[in-house]
Amino acid sequence: MNTEVLESNFNKANNFKDLPNGVAGLIEKNKDATFYGIASGRSMEGVGIFDGDLLIIDRSVDVKQGDVIVAAYSGVFVCKIADLKNNLLLSDSVEYPPVKVTKHDEYLFEGVVISSVRMHRGNIKEKL
């Protein structure tokens, strides 16, 4: 096996000793405002979020146009793309139409998805 090829495509993080706060330091920018969720469904596959992925959500981050967010919409947590200009919740799939948020809707912004983690062996839903 040619290890030179592997070494040029992989940078081992020395068991995370080189990272100031381990893996958590990479994904939790504000520990007190960070929470986690599990993605469900296929509507966000276009942005790389798949069913069963772990979502890292930060409540302290100001939402910007095009951010992936988590919100409570009509009593259900949803993960969508924020279209602030048009007041829409967008999926990244043609199978799911945009949702217009109006003043009559039950809507609460929960946070910006700052990262996601995919389980390559098993499904996180099976572990809960």
Main attributes?
alpha+beta; seven-stranded antiparallel sheet; 3 helices; 7 strands; globular
Please give a quick description of this structure:
The protein has helices at 3-9, 22-27, 124-127; strands spanning 34-38, 54-58, 68-73, 76-83, 88-90, 99-100, 107-117.
Protein model, in words:
By secondary structure, the chain is α+β, with helices and mostly antiparallel strands. The chain has helices at residues 3-9, 22-27, 124-127, and strands spanning 34-38, 54-58, 68-73, 76-83, 88-90, 99-100, 107-117. The longest helix has 7 residues, at 3-9. The chain is built from three helices and seven strands. It is 13% helix and 31% strand. It has a single domain, classed as Umud Fragment, subunit A (Ribbon). The relative contact order is 0.20.
- Unreliable spans: 1-9
> Taking all residues together, what is the mean pLDDT?
85
Portion in helices: 10-25%
Q: Could you name the CATH topology?
A: Umud Fragment, subunit A
Rg estimate, integer Å:
17 Å
CATH top level label: Mainly Beta
Describe the SSE topology.
Elements lengths: L2 H7 L12 H6 L6 E5 L15 E5 L9 E6 L2 E8 L4 E3 L8 E2 L6 E11 L6 H4 L1
Antiparallel strand pairs: 1-2, 2-7, 3-4, 3-7, 4-5, 5-6
